[in-house]
Specification:
By secondary structure, this protein is of the alpha/beta class. The chain has 8 helices and 11 strands. Strand 10 and strand 11 form a beta hairpin. The longest helix has 15 residues.
């Protein structure tokens, strides 16, 4: 049976306990044994981290106490998946975390507004069968890694702010990337827990993304992939 670790905390405004509870229920429904902690001491044992298939952070701001442990575990195949309030609006002083996750929140011009999430037509199983959908929440402006595989975007500007002096752009909302042989999935939606009820497609992508990330370790083992071999060869998958 696959195993997942969820840890939650930080700023309460992002409802980390509710979000972690939702994600745990999704994973358990899919047969993944899930442990949930409200602290970071669960990250202190590097060897134990290697026994998981997936790590899901639900922690806003703060400092990542065991950054090296997490980065090394993901590099060796443990998946990483999260949403706005717990992953890329977290640990802002930790550049290794930002490098691994693929992006960082910088602003939400206009606060809660109505906007559209546009699904990229790139035949990815995470977005298969989904259509563009409306959202009423904060629209996130991010600084992102050019290596990410973008699955969904949103058009800026919608709200009037200083960024309007620039050309219109499509900002990534959902993406995947790799860190060593580990799979990384991010969904920037998730200011509050109820965004996944109001926009069901957001939860569909979150579920599929977590399962995809959790499958990386098994894939690597079946195909005899190791991070050491990966670092000395071309991209393997």
């Amino acid at each position: 049976m696959k195993k997942a670790l969820i840890f939650w905390g930080g700023w309460d405004g992002h409802e980390p306990q509710l979000v972690s509870r939702r994600f745990a229920a999704i994973l358990e429904k899919n047969g993944i044994q899930t442990e949930v902690y409200d602290h970071q001491e669960c990250l202190s044992d590097y060897e134990k981290l290697l026994t998981y298939d997936l790590i899901v952070p639900c922690w806003t701001g703060g400092k990542l106490l065991y950054s090296h442990n997490v980065a090394e575990a993901v590099a060796r195949g443990v998946g990483l998946a999260g949403c706005h309030g717990g992953m890329c609006d977290a640990f802002r002083e930790d550049t290794e975390w930002q490098f691994m996750t693929g992006g960082q929140w910088v602003s939400h011009p206009g606060g809660d507004i109505a906007y559209t999430v546009n699904i990229r037509r790139n035949a990815n199983p995470i977005t298969e069968g989904l259509e563009d959908f409306p959202v009423e929440s904060e629209q996130y402006y991010l600084h992102v890694d050019p290596a990410i595989e973008v699955l969904a975007t949103t058009r800026f500007p919608v709200a009037n702010y200083y960024h309007c002096a620039n050309k219109p752009i499509d900002m990534p909302v959902v993406w995947t990337k790799f860190w060593g042989i580990g799979r990384v999935f991010y969904n920037s939606l998730g200011h509050h827990d109820d965004v996944f009820d109001k926009s069901p497609a957001a939860q569909v992508m979150m579920e599929r993304g977590m399962l995809w990330a959790a499958g990386g370790k098994e894939y690597a083992e079946k195909n005899d992939l190791t991070v050491d071999r990966y670092l000395n060869s071309a991209k393997m998958y």
